[in-house]
Amino acid sequence: MRLSLSALTLAASLSLGAPGAGAQVPASSAADRISADSLRGHLSFLSSDLLEGRGTPSRGLDLAAEYIAAQFRRAGLEAAGDDGYFQTANWQHAQRNAGDFTLTVQAGGKTIAVPHSAATANFVQPVTLGATGVVRMTWQEALAAGPQVDGKVLVVPAAAVPDAADVLRDALKARPALVVLVDTRGQHRNRGEGWLIDPEQVAPAGAAPVVVLHDAAAAAALESAGTTVAATIGVPQLRAAKLRNVIGVLRGADPALKNTYVMLTAHYDHLGIRNGEIHNGANDDGSGTVAVIDIAAALAADKARPRRSIVFMALFGEELGLLGSRYYGRHPVFPLKDTVAHLNLEQIGRTDDSEGAQVGTATLTGFDYSTVPDYLKKAGERSGVRLWKHAANSDRYFARSDNQALADVGVPAHTLAVAFGFPDYHGKDDDWSKLDYDNMARITRMVALGLQDIANDPARPQWTNVPKAAPYREAGRKLMGE
Ligand SMILES: [Zn+2]
């Protein structure tokens, strides 16, 4: 059925006149420009083998960044980086040769040599340590330890916190010669070769070197009395690593509101090459990335500009620990207090959720933490998508996705996904041919509509009063100077 122009105008004016619906754009709008074919086209390039899994850092990641920037340019977005569309983080990549690492544990007359591959030693300063006595402590005891461990080898089970080695290093009051963090489950092992160094977050001078030990035999030997540890660890090779967020902005039309911002992001990195296999990361998170590209193109092509400005951003380094979003949080291009909402997209192409098919549905992290989901629920009603709260994962993943950096500073920020878990998650077969593009187009249209509604609403989204949102609500008050 086709509606006549006058019927459309009438429908539009009716919906605009309805109470509480002032912000909603009609369902037939810029979002209709979003097509399954376009999403598939972009993704077939970004997740092709040529890009070698877009590891951080890699040539494949740089190629992806250039492609995304080209699409933002094509859409006519304003460049918002320090180098055109690129926000550049000038970091270093460090890698140590296996020959520059020896660590031995002597216990009960036996010597166990820990291979380089069974330890993670992400520090630059060289260590030369003869057989030295071991002091074993719990994580809490280690944090409180005084001079009794100075010059000793401090052995501590790794706490289940992100970046445990850095956290312990920075919190230690004592000056042990070496810290051995026991992590036989490999939770704090480097993903990929070497590690990244952010020059703004280097270890303080004199900080203890922390070796994370993944070797079960050596870990067991460290349990016995009279154990000593010896180590010779050389300086790693360092090279410059230029990491880039890709940022474009669609300027708002409202004279006052255009200086406020709604952010849409997705991470464009993935795992690179692991065990000789390219991990293409089509759903994770090529899908979110191409949705950002096509929403930008659709909204920028519309004659009617949103009232607020919309910031489109592709993030680096999510797979290594939310690096790109955290970098943006520390180096915001647009004032955070003027950033009214942030929506991050993750895994929106696969409908074969590990817990059952998810067609015509999407879920959000922090589902009842702020009023942002309300806009998306309404947008979902207009685009045939049901938004739902996952009983466990909606809360659990709130702090594990790229929305976290902005939420921490008080900006209402969420991650939208179709499936939290899917069969090829972080596997070598997360390929573009396996996505449901018709469903993905529907989800992407919903996001475009929701984004427009937030951008057109003169009222800002707010954190709610649910207890789990309390720290973010508090951060929000601080951000606004309340
Ligand atoms: Zn992801």
UniProtKB/TrEMBL annotation:
Residues 245-448 form the Peptidase M28 domain. The keyword Signal applies. GO terms for biological process: proteolysis. SUPFAM superfamilies: Zn-dependent exopeptidases (SSF53187). Keywords: Signal. Residues 458-482 are annotated as: Disordered. Gene3D superfamilies: 3.50.30.30, Zn peptidases. One of its GO terms (molecular function) is metalloexopeptidase activity. Residues 1-23 form the signal peptide. It comes from the Bacteria. This is M28 family peptidase.
